[in-house]
UniProtKB/TrEMBL annotation:
<comment type="function">
    <text>Catalyzes the O-sulfation of tyrosine residues within acidic motifs of polypeptides, using 3'-phosphoadenylyl sulfate (PAPS) as cosubstrate.</text>
</comment>
<dbReference type="InterPro" id="IPR027417">
    <property type="entry name" value="P-loop_NTPase"/>
</dbReference>
<keyword id="KW-0325">Glycoprotein</keyword>
<protein>
    <recommendedName>
        <fullName>Protein-tyrosine sulfotransferase</fullName>
        <ecNumber>2.8.2.20</ecNumber>
    </recommendedName>
</protein>
<dbReference type="GO" id="GO:0005794">
    <property type="term" value="C:Golgi apparatus"/>
</dbReference>
<keyword id="KW-1015">Disulfide bond</keyword>
<keyword id="KW-0808">Transferase</keyword>
<comment type="similarity">
    <text>Belongs to the protein sulfotransferase family.</text>
</comment>
<dbReference type="InterPro" id="IPR026634">
    <property type="entry name" value="TPST-like"/>
</dbReference>
<dbReference type="Pfam" id="PF13469">
    <property type="entry name" value="Sulfotransfer_3"/>
</dbReference>
<dbReference type="GO" id="GO:0008476">
    <property type="term" value="F:protein-tyrosine sulfotransferase activity"/>
</dbReference>
């Protein structure tokens, strides 16, 4: 009797499972047909067909085909600009990359360019140097590269993916502009690679006296990956290694990279900004000399708390000859202590009569 009841129970369970399975298959099949129908409708619309018959994805990227220009709508912008016109961006646009060792004036340079009505840099993305370092690590490891090649993830595939990712980050983390720039200091460690995937990009390498950079990062406790802020020797060694890597690639890029000395930019801002804008093929605008007036204003310059000291403080004392005697005395004392520490006596500001400006080198 018990056996008969168990057999009937099993039969009922099997029937129930069969019914549920049939209903599930029916609804899945119906859903698949609806999806297929919608795909056919979209692919039949003009302008939505990719090179390989793929669909057009978000922001105009062709899925299943080759990468094409992407488009976003403009937001608010400077007077005189056609805000209703779509903003088209692609790998061939004139991007600007600002880099160098941190505490070398990269924030100041970014703030000055941001003051230009046709330029938008924005704050550090922080992800760009990391993804570039990851790509570099893959390339250096022979075993990893072999595995990627075997999986079909070739250099061409990675380059296209990196190109699309970096472009999206640069474009989407701020407002559209005629000239877009990125300021992630250590991104220029991969300057040669960036020049390869963005053929029309240009690079600005900020260079500052290594002793001043190291003193700045240690005294201000600016955390930098790999730098031991408790050791001047370690920081100077890491500074030397980083600047050598970037400067070598900058020289190799020749007409695509412009080295700018922080001390000279501070002492002669107009001369160097005119040189820079000419190099970048950006029309001259006086606003780049008055970036401090636009900080925090709508459509102006935004600064993070970490990197604001160079961008704000540096120009408040620029071209000032009215500093009080006690401030000049303090600056001279700091300067002598610094040279005594490193056993050198050369003038880091490159002029013997600029003690009233030398405190800028320590900001």
């Amino acid at each position: 009797m018990v056996m008969v009841m168990m057999m009937k129970l099993k039969q009922n369970l099997l029937v129930a499972c069969l019914v549920i399975s049939s209903v599930t298959v029916f609804y899945l099949g119906r859903h698949a047909m609806e999806c297929h129908h919608r795909i056919e409708e979209r692919s039949s619309q003009p302008g939505d067909q990719g090179v390989l018959g793929g669909l057009q994805g978000p922001r105009g990227l062709l899925l299943g085909g080759s990468l094409s220009s992407s488009t976003i709508l403009r937001g608010s912008g400077p007077a005189g600009h056609n805000l209703s016109a779509p903003f088209v961006y692609n790998k061939d646009m004139p991007l600007v990359f600002i880099g160098g060792v941190p505490r070398s004036g990269t924030t100041l340079m970014r703030a000055m360019l941001d003051a230009h009505p046709e330029v938008r840099c924005g704050e550090e993305t922080r992800v760009i140097p990391r993804i570039l370092a990851m790509k570099q690590m893959w390339s250096r490891s022979g075993r990893e590269k072999m595995r990627l090649d075997e999986a079909g993830v070739t250099d061409e595939v990675l380059d296209a993916a990196m190109q699309a990712f970096l472009l999206e980050v640069i474009v989407k983390h701020g407002e559209p502009a005629n000239f877009l720039c990125n300021k992630d200091p250590f991104a220029l460690k991969s300057l040669s690679y960036l020049a390869k995937i963005f053929p029309h990009a240009k690079f600005v390498l900020m260079i500052r006296d290594g002793r001043a950079s190291v003193h700045s990062m240690i005294s201000r406790k600016v955390t930098i990956a790999g730098f031991d802020l408790g050791s001047y020797r370690d920081c100077l060694t890491k500074w030397n290694r980083a600047i050598e890597t970037m400067y070598t690639q900058c020289l190799e890029a020749s007409d695509k990279c412009l080295p700018v000395h922080y001390e000279q930019l501070v002492l002669h801002p107009e001369k160097w900004m005119r040189t820079l804008l000419k190099f970048l093929d950006i029309p001259w605008n006086e606003a780049v000399l008055h970036h401090e007036e636009l900080i925090g204003k709508a459509g102006g310059v935004s600064l993070s708390k970490k990197g604001s000291s160079q961008g704000v403080g540096v120009f408040h004392s620029l071209h000032r000859n009215d500093q009080p005697p006690h401030q000049i005395k303090t600056t001279k004392k700091k300067y002598r202590q610094y040279n005594k520490l490193w056993g050198e006596t050369r003038d880091i500001c490159h002029r013997a009569d600029v003690f009233i400006h030398c405190d800028l080198c320590w900001s």
